């Protein structure tokens, strides 16, 4: 399926990167594939990974070494540390700036990989929402699951006779919280108030490597002209209705501009 970025933010970051000469990446460059020319050894594109690493180091920071010099090792701050500093200063403008910088670098990393940030976010949020209980049966099975895991020797109710687990919310967003500090039989500590996952919880299921719909940099830096390209850079022949609508809109805008 072609990727059609749905969020304006993702579209703008992709267009900004192309304006700066950073083309979209190809998902296949990041997958370890058997190299048949070298005995089937797993191979990936190191240049693509290095490019992605440099991008992500803008978020997380970077360790560096000088080798055998007096300076030794060091750390270059990333935007994550700048966010923490802004929070410590209680400076809302700096917090907003740091958060936006993190999003720009994060969405730029998606652009470098050639994956759809919108689709991955959909997958993550769909997984998160399975933490909730959808039915009374799911509520009961979730209570049974957690009660069976609690270590009664180490766990004390918040008050004599008080429940260890409490039910909150309404369907389809009903959930269970720890009503006291809990210890499980496996030795895990569960703090009071923690949101406990439903038995129906599922990890995010990410979509496969996509065919990407990109916007020409001129979409946001000049003309509204757009193009659909595959992850290999070839024109996509698998344009779905929404993509076709986008193309018609761009074409109409260009025609209007040419008549103006």
Walk across the major sheet and give the strand order: 6-7-10
Determine the fraction of residues in helical runs and give it as a percent range. 40-55%
The fraction of residues assigned to DSSP E strands is: 5-15%
Mean pLDDT: 80
Shape: extended
Biggest sheet overview = 3 strands, antiparallel
Secondary-structure content class: alpha+beta
Helix tally equals 7
C-alpha termini separation: 36 Å
Strand tally = 11
Computed Rg: 25 Å
- What are the segments in which pLDDT stays under 50 over at least 5 consecutive residues? 211-250
H/E element sequence: EHEEHEEHHHHEEEEEEH
Any overview of this molecule?
- The protein is an alpha+beta fold and 260 residues long.
- Among the domains are: 89 residues, no CATH class; 66 residues.
- The chain contains 7 helices and 11 strands.
- The chain has a 3-stranded antiparallel β-sheet with strand order 6-7-10, covered by helices on one side.
- β8 and β9 form a beta hairpin.
- α1 packs across α4, α2 packs antiparallel against α4 and α3 runs antiparallel to α4.
- The chain is extended.
- The protein starts with a strand and ends with a helix.
- About 15% of the residues have low confidence.
């Amino acid at each position: 399926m072609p990727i059609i970025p749905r969020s304006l933010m993702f579209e703008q970051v992709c267009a900004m990167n192309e304006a700066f000469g950073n083309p979209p990446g190809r998902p296949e460059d990041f997958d370890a594939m058997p190299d048949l020319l070298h005995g089937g050894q797993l191979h990936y594109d190191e240049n693509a990974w290095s490019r992605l690493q440099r991008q992500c180091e803008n978020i997380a920071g970077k360790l560096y070494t000088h080798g055998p010099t007096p300076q030794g090792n060091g750390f270059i701050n990333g935007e994550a540390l700048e966010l923490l500093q802004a929070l410590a200063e209680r400076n809302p403008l700096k917090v907003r700036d740091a958060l936006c910088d993190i999003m720009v670098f994060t969405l730029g990393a998606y652009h470098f990989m050639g994956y759809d940030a919108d689709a991955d976010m959909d997958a993550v949020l769909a997984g998160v929402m399975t933490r909730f209980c959808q039915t009374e049966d799911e509520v009961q099975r979730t209570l049974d699951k957690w009660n069976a895991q609690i270590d009664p020797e180490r766990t004390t109710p918040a008050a004599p006779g008080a429940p260890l687990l409490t039910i909150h919310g309404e369907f389809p967003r009903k959930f269970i919280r720890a009503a006291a500090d809990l210890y499980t039989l496996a030795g895990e500590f569960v703090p009071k108030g923690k949101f406990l996952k439903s038995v129906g919880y599922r990890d995010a299921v990410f979509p496969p490597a996509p065919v990407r719909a990109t916007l020409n940099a001129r979409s946001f830096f000049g003309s509204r002209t757009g193009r659909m390209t595959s992850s290999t850079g070839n024109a996509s022949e698998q344009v779905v209705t929404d993509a076709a609508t986008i193309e018609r809109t761009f074409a109409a805008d260009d025609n209007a501009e040419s008549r103006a």
